[in-house]
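Before a colleague's protein record goes any further, I have to sign it off. Thanks in advance; the entry in question is below:
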Amino acid sequence: MKDLSPTLKIVTVWGLVGLAVFLAVQFWQAHEARTRFTATADGVIEIRRGPDGHYHWPGRVNGVEVDFLVDTGASSTALPLALAERAGLRGEGRITSSTAGGIVRGTLARADIDLDGGVRAERLRVAILPALAAPLLGMDVLSQLHFAQSDGVLRLTPRPAGQ
């Protein structure tokens, strides 16, 4: 075993190079995800646009971790069926909704939404849509905040009391 075959040496070196590249990409993606969201003590939240072109706001639905897509075009918050089931949501009625993809049918439920940065909505009425790919944070929550978008950064600030 003194000498490994040249082919095995080459395969080993390329395997190690591949592993190093993979770990570097994983580290970079984790770093990007951590720096995409910031919140200050005075309630200012900044969300940087993700690689997919959307703003993602981390939070929880009834304690279940979730990465919301910020959707200013959605009048209400909507959740995929699988997430609603994991969060233990119970249907309270049926809904028919008009979306960019057409008319969809779903279920209404109530959920506690906790967003990173201290934004909270208790017993929020949400739509559960079976074919929805990602949870959407709609204007029912976003309208409680001032928001502005510039240079790939969405800046959200609390509304003063009475507004």
User: Anything to note?
Assistant: The radius of gyration is 21 Å.
